[in-house]
Amino acid sequence: MNNLFVYCEIEDGIISDVSLELLTKGRSLANQLKCQLEAVVIGHNLSGIENVVFPYGVDVLHIADDARLAPFTTLPHCSILIKLFQEEKPQIALMGATSVGRDLGPRISSALHSGLTADCTSLEIGSHEDKKAGIVYENLLYQIRPAFGGNIVATIINPDCRPQMATVREGVMKKEIVDINYKGRVNQLEISNYVTDADFTISVIERHMEKSKINIKSAPILVSGGYGVGSKENFKLLFDLAAVIGGEVGASRAAVDAGFCEHERQVGQTGITVRPKLYIACGISGQIQHIAGMQDSAIIISINNDPAAPINTIADYVIKGDIETVIPKMIKYYKQNSK
Amino acid sequence: MVLAKQVPDTRNVGKDAMTAEGTVNRAALPAIFNPEDLNALEQALRLKDQIPGTTVTVLTMGPFRAAEIIRESLYRGADGGYVLSDRAFAGSDTLATSYALSCAIRKMKNIDLIVCGRQAIDGDTAQVGSQVAEKLGMNQITYAEEIISLKKNIIRVKRRVEKGVEVLEGPLPMLVTVNSSAASCRPRNAKLLMKYKYARIPNELQASNEDYTTLCNSRDFLQIGEWSVNDIECDPAELGLSGSPTKVKKIENVIFQAKESKTFTTSDEDIEGLIQELISNHTIG
User: Fold this and answer.
1) Cβ–Cβ gap B131/A106 under 8 Å
2) Which helix (H) or strand (E) holds A292?
3) Which tens digit of pLDDT belongs to each residue from A255-286?
4) Record: contact A298-B14, CB cut-off 8 A
5) Residue pair A139/A33 in contact by the 8 Å Cβ criterion
6) B97 lies in which domain range?
7) Co-location of B278 and B226 in the same domain
8) Which residue among A69, A82, A260, B233 is least enclosed by CB atoms within 10 Å?
9) Which ranges constitute the DSSP H helices of chain B?
């Protein structure tokens, strides 16, 4: 009772990274709260899944295994979680900020009348004093997230309602095996106690996972490369950095014309106008046509070995050097310093 | 039924979006139609084009100026709309918002399909749609890119998720939330713009310097519905701050750097220092 729950997403028998990252975070929060970490896996053909989950420090694994539970549809997964949470009364429930977690989470919070905070970038345990009511709450989950287009960072709490629910995007938390021999307990759920036929009214007609469309316009962080990147191979460095810090990759016209990357990524007057929170210009000299398409970015970093590159005049930070040296270091220090 | 929200345009955040004191400069952010709600409106209007007898009604919750959302919808082909506005809703989190919206939707009979944007750009939570569906006991399809068909009460929807696409099918009633990858909304129609230019909610008529009251009263289609908390059946304790389980404990502004640039070398200390600075001011991480 009153433990910390993580909903684990599963696709083709593989638990998604975001769920494993949440188990790792959940374990450390559970240690602080001195409670158990419980996980829920819902799907089909799940035998042996406990061997994947337990090493992350899971004390109890709830398994719902039925042919009708995969692929994911909203209502059956929802019904199972709602009923399970009513029985087990978790104090905290975490799920991935994915198309699955963001589909399920709000429905569950609505049904249980509990607070849900989407896309948290940090989760901490702390206290809160309600001065008006004269109550001090201990061991609350601080749900920290950017809001207002990333212009503010808010700390959200749910003082009275349980579970305290939060979703977190993939890559925000680190995943780490606690103990390869960690052993928890498996709780096989009797499906008929949790779902009804009415939960299965949606049928999946077609399902194919393909490459999604490139969308640099809405990316909050853009790592953009110019002719100075030098080659298509070097562009991979930009993709690596973007993947680590949660951004997309853009390019200047010169880089697109040189065949370093797709036209869909072109920033500038003849490409797409962008206004990200952070624009990292790698080997971009800064022709006016390019600057016109990105000068409204909130913060601009220019990495260039030419100190006289025009882009440096509008950049907030200038790193003088080659991208081959700088980007691997940025990745390294981001990984070391991020939570 | 289309659910739509008026939002500050957080996408066009430039360097002047923050004041010198580091607070949000709301004056620099115009109020706009939430972009994904426009995608949702287009999906609804397409069904209206295909299926005779379909009525598209738009519901928005917010201050009186949110009537602009209804007008913009009318200009594009919606049949009518309502503004749900009351001080009692102030401070609502997503749960209290969805409660108020669901009470308003219950008031309207014969709602078979609710379409709304996946999320609003000022909050990015993607919660209200699903919570409304739950409160109304409706099934839901989120992350829709296209409503492919609606035949004999069965809706077929293409969903775009992180790694691919899915086509789902299910019976009405249904709530569908629409992605920005869906088709853009059609532009305003010139004839409709002329027709609905003076459409107003009662409160706007009272506040306005120009008097359109006579005009609006003589033409039903110019009267936009306005509902307060007294017009919907609801439990006031579930609204506003008291109905919101989540509380904001603390707000920190993301501080934008001065415009003069700092220069770094490729040394490890310099790059680590830069990364730490970016993390500490919440630019990344």
Assistant:
1) yes
2) helix A288-292
3) 988 889 888 898 986 678 788 889 999 999 98
4) yes
5) yes
6) 2-247
7) no
8) B233
9) 35-50, 67-76, 94-107, 128-136, 190-196, 202-207, 213-218, 268-280
**Percent of chain A's residues with pLDDT above 70:** 97
- A121–B285 CB contact, under 8 Å: yes
DSSP structure class, residue A154: E
Q: What are phi and psi of A194, to 5 degrees?
A: -115, -30
Per-residue pLDDT of A55-78, as tens digits, reads 999 999 999 999 999 999 999 999
Report CA-CA distances (Å) from A52 to A15, A43, A168, B101.
8, 15, 21, 42
Nearest to B271 among A71, A202, A326 (CB): A326
CA angle B24, B239, A130 (to 5 degrees): 70
CATH of A221-337, one of 2.160.20.10, 3.30.499.10, 3.40.50.1220, 3.40.50.920: 3.40.50.1220
Rounded mean pLDDT, A212-227? 83
The fraction of chain A above a pLDDT of 90, given in percent, is 71
Hey, which residues 100-129 in chain B have their CB within 8 Å of chain A?
Answer: 121-129
**Residues B198 and B279 grouped into a single domain:** no
Using the Cα atoms of residue B11, residue B16, residue B21 and residue B22 in order, give the sign of their dihedral: positive
Quick check: B259 contacting A, CB < 8 Å? Answer: yes
Question: What is the value of pTM for the model shown?
Answer: 0.78
The residues facing A128 across adjacent strands are: A137
Separation CA A116–CA A105 (nearest Å): 7
In angstroms, the separation between the Cα of residue A65 and the nearest Cα of chain B is 22
Polymer length in residues for chain A? 339
| Averaged pLDDT for residues B30-54 | 95
Q: Closest Cα to residue A191, out of A317, A4, A64, A53?
A: A64
